[in-house]
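Quick one - inputs below.
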Amino acid sequence: MTARATGGSAPEGYDKHAFEPFAVTVDLAVLTIRAGALDVLLVERGQEPYAGRWALPGGFVLPDESAETAARRELAEETGLADVSGLHLEQLRTYSEPGRDPRMRVVSVAFTALLPDAPEPRGGGDAAEARWRPYDTAGPLAFDHDRILADAHERVGAQLEYSCLATAFCPPEFTLGELQQVYETVWGGTLDRPNFRRKVLATPGFVEPVPGAARLTGGRGKPAALYRAGTAAALHPPLLRPPREGSPA
Amino acid sequence: MTARATGGSAPEGYDKHAFEPFAVTVDLAVLTIRAGALDVLLVERGQEPYAGRWALPGGFVLPDESAETAARRELAEETGLADVSGLHLEQLRTYSEPGRDPRMRVVSVAFTALLPDAPEPRGGGDAAEARWRPYDTAGPLAFDHDRILADAHERVGAQLEYSCLATAFCPPEFTLGELQQVYETVWGGTLDRPNFRRKVLATPGFVEPVPGAARLTGGRGKPAALYRAGTAAALHPPLLRPPREGSPA
DNA sequence: ACAAAAGTGTTTTTCTTACACCCATGT
DNA sequence: ACATGGGTGTAAGAAAAACACTTTTGT
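Output:
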């Protein structure tokens, strides 16, 4: 809905300052893969509450912004990247428990952002310190950010199954080995290389080969072919996570 | 994030009434299946803007409520159902475009709700009129509710593939034919009954048989066995939508 | 007897899986 | 030579799709 009286409790006259206001913010779970590990961007809090604790980057939605616009602005500020227009940014969900910020009523729209390479954050804005931290040892975070981060991880893991999202973790040109590493890092297991390769190449629009020559993978081994992200968004059929031991009947 | 100064634009002193407030509301896309068609709950607007137009039910989030709590309260008010505690309610996403309500800044957290049978809405609250409308002829709705409704439909359709959500459209005890109708109605096609049956029964925890006897389906035909919703939440492997003609390469 | 809906069986095809194996490069 | 990672092939098994067929009810 939008502003309209229901339930007999909400104002109809729109006296904009008569009722208890909600602050609306965005929180960002910015994920990347560095050295084969899933990392998350965190900022150190300077003041109470949770002073000295790490938190997800974020900030207020300004009066003329949508949450998406605010999220992209914050992403640029916190990472220090010049161009964030091509980066993957997606709404996760909204957190609105009354007590989640002890000071006032704050409703926060959370986003997940996926980055390919990972330059050290430039610590823009006024954030005391911004830094990449391994996902596994990120917590405990301020506020309800542990939960937000866990939700983000779960969502990204699920999206890898049925969307082409994995390419968002890769640079513009990448090898199939790098793409496979994305899956293995987020899912936390290993995949069969020949089968992974077949599935990816059999999905139209997932990746497309780059006409140029092959590249070294970092020294050893046969040079790998380069691919670009394709035009497809969905994966049909999906690339299912290998079933964990013990879960099936 | 939560209230914290970033980017140099947000207040740090928390003068709760000094800045332009955001109104926070919930919008509900309440879906059900009636007579083999997908129906959505709509309310008729009494005043401007969009007076006389149909809209999704919803309302303000009260100062001590989470968005989820507000959504369930609105659901009870608008449907007139005595007990909405068991009904499926899930956050869809948040809509925050600055111009989506011409009067003031309204950020709305949208939810999807799924109902089994469908009593005519009792028009609780102050909504002038509440009514079930076929999904296909629901629009055009007020505000950005066409978009919200379309997003809800897409989300529910996708969730049928990899979750046990379909049982939320069914009464406590149902036949496999009814369950199949849910899929066919939401997806808009036909499924092969023997194969559907096998897939459902092969998925542990999706449905479980009711010890009692068989029931008539409405007159003709062999009485069908009754099932209850199982304990599983996810569907492994998923029940994939039949690919539409023309989409695969 | 017939229509309608539930339920079972079977065959064909497709996809997944688990490997074995070769290729190209750096040390 | 050999370790390392890229890439190809293939045979066994599992799953999905298509369709024929039987069962049980109401009219």
